[in-house]
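Q: Hi! First time doing this. I have a protein sequence and I read that you can turn it into a structure. Is that right? Here it is:
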Amino acid sequence: MIDWMYYSIQALTLGIAAYLLWETYRSQLVGRTHFIALGVIEAALVVQFITALVLVIPAAGDSKALFFSYLLTAMLVLPIAAVWGSIDRSRWGIGTVAIGCLVASALLLRVNQIWDYQVNV
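A: Yes, that's right. Below is the predicted 3D structure, encoded as structure tokens:
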């Protein structure tokens, strides 16, 4: 993986998670700006996925299936959290989306660990 891309996506995901937690504190509902923020993260994850395809396929290490399963799960968490958060019209709907961002960040951390210790050996 490209380090600067990983760190920038992590910073973006954690920053938007902090923003969404602040919106949870303010009892806001999931709105257009939140969907735009999630779209930016999702676009960055798609770029990361395409980059990973180019870098991982010719790599010599094992655990490529595990690597891609974590990366695909990170890509799927945000749309699921967005749908779930928009259905829930309480203050915790936006909290669900914030937790989805934190889960995506944790999954990306695991993707980076798999890259460092099992794929790129």
